[in-house]
Protein backbone atom coordinates (compact mmCIF):
# COMPACT_ATOMS: atom_id res chain seq x y z
CA UNK A 1 0.00 0.00 0.00
CA UNK A 2 2.78 2.43 0.86
CA UNK A 3 4.77 1.58 -2.28
CA UNK A 4 1.71 2.12 -4.49
CA UNK A 5 0.94 5.41 -2.73
CA UNK A 6 4.48 6.72 -3.15
CA UNK A 7 4.52 5.65 -6.80
CA UNK A 8 1.20 7.46 -7.43
CA UNK A 9 2.43 10.61 -5.71
CA UNK A 10 5.72 10.65 -7.61
CA UNK A 11 4.08 9.86 -10.96
CA UNK A 12 0.89 11.96 -10.82
CA UNK A 13 0.93 13.94 -7.59
CA UNK A 14 -2.15 15.42 -5.96
CA UNK A 15 -4.60 17.46 -7.99
CA UNK A 16 -4.79 20.67 -5.95
CA UNK A 17 -8.01 22.67 -5.95
CA UNK A 18 -8.37 26.43 -6.03
CA UNK A 19 -7.86 26.57 -2.25
CA UNK A 20 -4.16 25.91 -2.91
CA UNK A 21 -3.58 27.03 -6.51
CA UNK A 22 -5.87 30.06 -6.62
CA UNK A 23 -8.68 30.56 -9.12
CA UNK A 24 -12.44 30.87 -9.34
CA UNK A 25 -15.16 28.36 -8.56
CA UNK A 26 -18.62 28.92 -10.06
CA UNK A 27 -21.59 26.72 -9.16
CA UNK A 28 -24.55 27.00 -11.52
CA UNK A 29 -27.78 25.24 -12.38
CA UNK A 30 -29.94 25.50 -15.48
CA UNK A 31 -33.67 26.13 -15.70
CA UNK A 32 -35.59 23.98 -18.15
CA UNK A 33 -32.55 22.43 -19.81
CA UNK A 34 -28.97 21.30 -19.22
CA UNK A 35 -25.69 21.84 -21.02
CA UNK A 36 -23.05 19.22 -21.71
CA UNK A 37 -19.40 19.85 -20.85
CA UNK A 38 -18.59 20.60 -24.48
CA UNK A 39 -21.52 23.00 -24.83
CA UNK A 40 -20.33 24.88 -21.74
CA UNK A 41 -16.80 25.11 -23.15
CA UNK A 42 -18.15 26.37 -26.47
CA UNK A 43 -20.24 29.01 -24.71
CA UNK A 44 -17.23 30.27 -22.73
CA UNK A 45 -14.68 30.03 -25.54
CA UNK A 46 -14.54 33.83 -25.96
CA UNK A 47 -14.06 34.61 -22.25
CA UNK A 48 -10.31 33.80 -22.11
CA UNK A 49 -10.65 31.63 -18.99
CA UNK A 50 -7.76 29.29 -19.73
CA UNK A 51 -8.32 25.65 -18.87
CA UNK A 52 -11.84 25.11 -17.56
CA UNK A 53 -12.52 22.19 -15.22
CA UNK A 54 -16.19 21.16 -15.46
CA UNK A 55 -17.69 18.78 -12.89
CA UNK A 56 -21.42 18.00 -13.19
CA UNK A 57 -23.22 16.57 -10.15
CA UNK A 58 -26.15 14.22 -9.72
CA UNK A 59 -28.42 17.09 -8.65
CA UNK A 60 -28.06 18.91 -11.98
CA UNK A 61 -25.56 21.38 -10.56
CA UNK A 62 -22.38 22.09 -12.53
CA UNK A 63 -19.11 23.20 -10.93
CA UNK A 64 -16.80 25.30 -13.09
CA UNK A 65 -13.20 25.96 -12.08
CA UNK A 66 -11.02 28.42 -13.97
CA UNK A 67 -8.49 31.19 -13.43
CA UNK A 68 -9.19 34.28 -11.35
CA UNK A 69 -11.60 36.70 -13.03
CA UNK A 70 -13.01 40.12 -12.18
CA UNK A 71 -16.68 40.89 -11.63
CA UNK A 72 -17.20 42.02 -15.22
CA UNK A 73 -15.96 38.69 -16.56
CA UNK A 74 -18.00 36.88 -13.92
CA UNK A 75 -21.19 38.49 -15.21
CA UNK A 76 -20.14 37.89 -18.82
CA UNK A 77 -19.78 34.18 -18.05
CA UNK A 78 -23.31 34.01 -16.65
CA UNK A 79 -24.65 35.87 -19.68
CA UNK A 80 -22.86 33.53 -22.09
CA UNK A 81 -24.21 30.45 -20.31
CA UNK A 82 -27.68 31.95 -20.26
CA UNK A 83 -27.57 32.58 -24.03
CA UNK A 84 -26.38 29.03 -24.67
CA UNK A 85 -29.16 27.56 -22.52
CA UNK A 86 -31.76 29.78 -24.16
CA UNK A 87 -30.54 28.82 -27.63
CA UNK A 88 -30.85 25.15 -26.71
CA UNK A 89 -34.48 25.82 -25.79
CA UNK A 90 -35.03 27.63 -29.09
CA UNK A 91 -35.22 31.10 -27.54
CA UNK A 92 -33.46 33.94 -29.35
CA UNK A 93 -32.35 36.45 -26.75
CA UNK A 94 -31.07 38.78 -29.47
CA UNK A 95 -34.56 39.28 -30.91
CA UNK A 96 -36.02 42.71 -30.27
CA UNK A 97 -38.08 42.75 -27.10
CA UNK A 98 -41.46 44.51 -27.15
CA UNK A 99 -41.25 48.08 -26.12
CA UNK A 100 -42.15 48.69 -22.53
CA UNK A 101 -43.35 52.11 -21.47
CA UNK A 102 -40.72 53.60 -19.26
CA UNK A 103 -41.47 55.88 -16.40
CA UNK A 104 -38.99 58.69 -16.25
CA UNK A 105 -38.61 60.72 -13.14
CA UNK A 106 -37.07 64.07 -13.79
CA UNK A 107 -34.57 64.81 -11.10
CA UNK A 108 -34.93 68.06 -9.26
CA UNK A 109 -32.15 70.54 -9.29
CA UNK A 110 -30.92 69.30 -5.96
CA UNK A 111 -32.85 66.26 -4.76
CA UNK A 112 -30.56 65.68 -1.81
CA UNK A 113 -30.92 69.04 -0.18
CA UNK A 114 -28.88 70.61 2.52
CA UNK A 115 -30.48 71.42 5.89
CA UNK A 116 -33.03 74.24 5.53
CA UNK A 117 -34.24 76.52 8.29
CA UNK A 118 -38.04 76.75 8.50
CA UNK A 119 -39.82 79.32 10.65
CA UNK A 120 -42.48 77.89 12.95
CA UNK A 121 -44.24 78.71 16.15
CA UNK A 122 -44.06 76.77 19.39
CA UNK A 123 -46.88 76.14 21.85
CA UNK A 124 -46.53 79.62 23.41
CA UNK A 125 -46.72 81.36 20.03
CA UNK A 126 -43.05 82.35 19.84
CA UNK A 127 -41.21 82.10 16.49
CA UNK A 128 -38.59 79.31 16.37
CA UNK A 129 -36.24 78.03 13.67
CA UNK A 130 -36.36 74.32 12.84
CA UNK A 131 -33.64 72.57 10.79
CA UNK A 132 -35.13 70.18 8.27
CA UNK A 133 -33.54 68.00 5.59
CA UNK A 134 -35.46 66.31 2.80
CA UNK A 135 -33.74 63.42 1.00
CA UNK A 136 -35.28 62.47 -2.29
CA UNK A 137 -33.60 59.58 -4.10
CA UNK A 138 -36.44 58.32 -6.25
CA UNK A 139 -34.31 58.08 -9.38
CA UNK A 140 -31.65 56.00 -7.58
CA UNK A 141 -34.30 53.64 -6.19
CA UNK A 142 -35.88 53.25 -9.61
CA UNK A 143 -32.47 52.54 -11.15
CA UNK A 144 -31.74 49.84 -8.55
CA UNK A 145 -35.11 48.16 -9.07
CA UNK A 146 -34.69 48.34 -12.86
CA UNK A 147 -31.20 46.81 -12.65
CA UNK A 148 -32.40 43.93 -10.45
CA UNK A 149 -35.36 43.29 -12.77
CA UNK A 150 -33.16 43.42 -15.87
CA UNK A 151 -30.63 41.03 -14.32
CA UNK A 152 -33.36 38.55 -13.40
CA UNK A 153 -34.77 38.67 -16.94
CA UNK A 154 -31.36 38.49 -18.62
CA UNK A 155 -30.12 35.35 -16.83
CA UNK A 156 -33.37 33.52 -16.22
CA UNK A 157 -32.14 30.30 -17.91
CA UNK A 158 -29.09 29.92 -15.65
CA UNK A 159 -29.13 30.03 -11.85
CA UNK A 160 -25.95 30.93 -10.01
CA UNK A 161 -25.63 28.96 -6.78
CA UNK A 162 -22.29 30.28 -5.56
CA UNK A 163 -19.13 31.99 -6.73
CA UNK A 164 -15.80 32.26 -4.96
CA UNK A 165 -12.35 33.41 -5.98
CA UNK A 166 -9.04 32.78 -4.21
CA UNK A 167 -5.79 34.47 -5.15
CA UNK A 168 -2.55 32.48 -5.63
CA UNK A 169 -0.91 34.18 -2.64
CA UNK A 170 -3.68 33.02 -0.33
CA UNK A 171 -3.47 29.54 -1.90
CA UNK A 172 0.25 29.25 -1.15
CA UNK A 173 -0.30 30.40 2.42
CA UNK A 174 -3.00 27.76 2.89
CA UNK A 175 -0.72 25.08 1.49
CA UNK A 176 2.10 26.06 3.86
CA UNK A 177 -0.31 26.21 6.82
CA UNK A 178 -1.65 22.75 5.95
CA UNK A 179 1.83 21.20 5.97
CA UNK A 180 2.73 22.82 9.28
CA UNK A 181 -0.58 21.73 10.80
CA UNK A 182 0.18 18.09 9.97
CA UNK A 183 3.77 18.31 11.26
CA UNK A 184 2.79 19.99 14.54
CA UNK A 185 -0.04 17.50 15.09
CA UNK A 186 2.30 14.51 14.66
CA UNK A 187 4.96 15.98 16.98
CA UNK A 188 2.35 16.75 19.63
CA UNK A 189 1.01 13.19 19.43
CA UNK A 190 4.52 11.71 19.84
CA UNK A 191 5.23 13.85 22.90
CA UNK A 192 1.88 13.12 24.51
CA UNK A 193 2.13 9.35 24.08
CA UNK A 194 5.71 9.38 25.41
CA UNK A 195 4.47 11.22 28.50
CA UNK A 196 1.36 9.03 28.92
CA UNK A 197 3.43 5.82 28.79
CA UNK A 198 6.32 7.13 30.92
CA UNK A 199 5.73 4.46 33.58
CA UNK A 200 6.01 1.63 31.05
CA UNK A 201 9.71 1.72 30.26
CA UNK A 202 10.33 -2.04 30.24
CA UNK A 203 11.08 -3.74 27.94
CA UNK A 204 10.31 -0.89 25.48
CA UNK A 205 10.90 2.74 26.42
CA UNK A 206 7.88 5.01 26.55
CA UNK A 207 9.28 7.22 23.81
CA UNK A 208 9.17 4.30 21.35
CA UNK A 209 5.42 4.00 21.80
CA UNK A 210 5.10 7.54 20.48
CA UNK A 211 7.46 6.94 17.56
CA UNK A 212 5.60 3.78 16.51
CA UNK A 213 2.23 5.52 16.81
CA UNK A 214 3.60 8.24 14.52
CA UNK A 215 4.83 5.59 12.07
CA UNK A 216 1.33 4.09 11.99
CA UNK A 217 -0.10 7.57 11.40
CA UNK A 218 2.36 8.11 8.55
CA UNK A 219 1.10 4.85 7.06
CA UNK A 220 -2.51 6.05 7.35
CA UNK A 221 -1.92 9.51 5.89
CA UNK A 222 0.39 8.34 3.13
CA UNK A 223 -2.05 5.64 2.02
CA UNK A 224 -4.98 8.08 2.02
CA UNK A 225 -3.01 10.71 0.10
CA UNK A 226 -1.83 8.07 -2.39
CA UNK A 227 -5.41 6.94 -3.04
CA UNK A 228 -6.42 10.55 -3.74
CA UNK A 229 -3.48 10.93 -6.11
CA UNK A 230 -4.93 7.98 -8.06
CA UNK A 231 -8.47 9.40 -7.88
CA UNK A 232 -7.19 12.79 -8.99
CA UNK A 233 -5.48 11.32 -12.04
CA UNK A 234 -8.34 9.11 -13.21
CA UNK A 235 -11.45 10.89 -11.84
CA UNK A 236 -10.12 14.49 -11.68
CA UNK A 237 -10.88 14.84 -7.96
CA UNK A 238 -9.29 17.94 -6.42
CA UNK A 239 -8.03 18.32 -2.86
CA UNK A 240 -8.50 21.49 -0.85
CA UNK A 241 -8.63 22.75 2.71
CA UNK A 242 -11.37 20.27 3.60
CA UNK A 243 -8.99 17.45 2.59
CA UNK A 244 -6.44 18.71 5.12
CA UNK A 245 -9.16 18.90 7.77
CA UNK A 246 -10.06 15.29 6.98
CA UNK A 247 -6.41 14.23 7.30
CA UNK A 248 -6.16 15.87 10.73
CA UNK A 249 -9.36 14.09 11.76
CA UNK A 250 -7.86 10.81 10.57
CA UNK A 251 -4.75 11.47 12.67
CA UNK A 252 -6.88 11.93 15.77
CA UNK A 253 -9.07 8.89 15.15
CA UNK A 254 -6.25 6.56 14.16
CA UNK A 255 -4.03 7.43 17.11
CA UNK A 256 -7.05 7.03 19.38
CA UNK A 257 -7.47 3.43 18.20
CA UNK A 258 -3.73 2.78 18.48
CA UNK A 259 -3.61 4.15 22.03
CA UNK A 260 -6.41 1.79 23.08
CA UNK A 261 -4.28 -1.18 21.98
CA UNK A 262 -1.14 0.27 23.58
CA UNK A 263 -2.99 1.03 26.81
CA UNK A 264 -4.09 -2.58 27.08
CA UNK A 265 -0.44 -3.52 26.49
CA UNK A 266 0.57 -1.25 29.36
CA UNK A 267 -1.97 -2.89 31.69
CA UNK A 268 -0.88 -6.43 30.81
CA UNK A 269 2.81 -5.56 31.16
CA UNK A 270 2.10 -4.62 34.78
CA UNK A 271 -0.10 -7.66 35.26
CA UNK A 272 2.27 -10.23 33.68
CA UNK A 273 5.67 -8.95 34.70
CA UNK A 274 8.51 -11.07 33.35
CA UNK A 275 6.33 -12.70 30.69
CA UNK A 276 7.23 -12.95 27.00
CA UNK A 277 6.77 -9.51 25.44
CA UNK A 278 5.57 -10.80 22.08
CA UNK A 279 2.93 -13.04 23.67
CA UNK A 280 1.74 -10.17 25.88
CA UNK A 281 1.32 -7.81 22.92
CA UNK A 282 -0.44 -10.51 20.91
CA UNK A 283 -2.83 -11.10 23.82
CA UNK A 284 -3.56 -7.35 23.99
CA UNK A 285 -4.32 -7.17 20.25
CA UNK A 286 -6.73 -10.10 20.53
CA UNK A 287 -8.47 -8.54 23.52
CA UNK A 288 -9.09 -5.26 21.69
CA UNK A 289 -9.66 -6.68 18.20
CA UNK A 290 -13.47 -6.90 18.28
CA UNK A 291 -13.75 -3.52 19.97
CA UNK A 292 -11.63 -1.85 17.26
CA UNK A 293 -13.57 -3.46 14.41
CA UNK A 294 -17.01 -2.70 15.89
CA UNK A 295 -16.17 0.92 16.65
CA UNK A 296 -14.75 1.59 13.21
CA UNK A 297 -17.54 -0.28 11.45
CA UNK A 298 -20.24 1.90 13.03
CA UNK A 299 -18.29 5.04 12.08
CA UNK A 300 -17.89 3.86 8.48
CA UNK A 301 -21.63 3.11 8.30
CA UNK A 302 -22.49 6.71 9.21
CA UNK A 303 -19.85 8.09 6.85
CA UNK A 304 -21.19 5.94 4.01
CA UNK A 305 -24.68 7.36 4.50
CA UNK A 306 -23.22 10.89 4.45
CA UNK A 307 -21.25 10.07 1.31
CA UNK A 308 -24.36 8.84 -0.50
CA UNK A 309 -26.86 11.44 0.69
CA UNK A 310 -24.85 14.31 2.18
CA UNK A 311 -24.50 16.35 -0.99
CA UNK A 312 -21.67 17.30 -3.30
CA UNK A 313 -20.04 19.87 -1.02
CA UNK A 314 -18.95 17.32 1.64
CA UNK A 315 -18.72 14.18 -0.53
CA UNK A 316 -14.94 14.02 -0.90
CA UNK A 317 -14.36 15.17 2.68
CA UNK A 318 -16.43 12.18 3.81
CA UNK A 319 -14.67 9.88 1.33
CA UNK A 320 -11.33 10.90 2.84
CA UNK A 321 -12.62 9.98 6.29
CA UNK A 322 -13.94 6.60 5.08
CA UNK A 323 -10.54 5.71 3.62
CA UNK A 324 -8.64 7.05 6.62
CA UNK A 325 -10.77 5.34 9.27
CA UNK A 326 -10.57 2.01 7.44
CA UNK A 327 -6.81 2.23 6.97
CA UNK A 328 -6.35 3.54 10.51
CA UNK A 329 -8.18 0.57 12.01
CA UNK A 330 -6.02 -1.77 9.96
CA UNK A 331 -2.81 -0.03 11.05
CA UNK A 332 -3.72 -0.10 14.75
CA UNK A 333 -4.00 -3.90 14.58
CA UNK A 334 -1.52 -4.96 11.92
CA UNK A 335 1.08 -2.18 11.90
CA UNK A 336 1.51 -0.49 15.29
CA UNK A 337 1.70 -3.52 17.59
CA UNK A 338 3.86 -5.67 15.27
CA UNK A 339 6.26 -2.73 14.90
CA UNK A 340 6.48 -2.52 18.68
CA UNK A 341 7.47 -6.19 18.89
CA UNK A 342 9.87 -5.92 15.96
CA UNK A 343 11.67 -2.96 17.52
CA UNK A 344 11.97 -4.80 20.83
CA UNK A 345 13.40 -7.87 19.09
CA UNK A 346 15.87 -5.71 17.18
CA UNK A 347 17.08 -4.14 20.46
CA UNK A 348 17.44 -7.55 22.10
CA UNK A 349 19.42 -8.84 19.14
CA UNK A 350 21.65 -5.78 19.17
CA UNK A 351 22.29 -6.23 22.88
CA UNK A 352 23.00 -9.93 22.38
CA UNK A 353 20.04 -11.19 24.38
List keywords for this structure.
353 residues, alpha+beta, Multidrug efflux transporter AcrB transmembrane fold, 2 domains, 6 strands, 61% helix
Task: Provide a descriptive summary of the structure in words.
This protein is an alpha+beta fold. It has 2 domains: 23-93 and 156-166, Alpha-Beta Plaits (2-Layer Sandwich), CATH 3.30.70; 167-350, Multidrug efflux transporter AcrB transmembrane fold, CATH 1.20.1640.10. Helices cover 61% and strands 11% of the residues. It has a 4-stranded antiparallel sheet. A two-stranded antiparallel ribbon has the order 4-5. A hairpin with a 5-residue loop joins strand 2 (53-56) and strand 3 (62-66). Helix 6 (168-196) packs antiparallel against helix 7 (206-235). The longest helix has 36 residues, at 315-350. The model is unreliable at 99-114 and 128-153 (pLDDT under 50).
Amino acid sequence: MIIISIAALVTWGLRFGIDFTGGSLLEVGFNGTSLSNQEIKDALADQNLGEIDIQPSDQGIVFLKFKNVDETTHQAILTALNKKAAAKLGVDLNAAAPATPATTVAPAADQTSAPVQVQAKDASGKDVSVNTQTVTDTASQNATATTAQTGAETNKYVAEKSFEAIGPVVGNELKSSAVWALIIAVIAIILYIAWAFRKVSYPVSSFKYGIIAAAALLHDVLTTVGIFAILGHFLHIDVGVSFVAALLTILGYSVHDTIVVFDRTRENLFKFRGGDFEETVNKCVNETLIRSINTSFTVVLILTVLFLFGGQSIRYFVLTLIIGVTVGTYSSIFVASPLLVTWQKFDDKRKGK
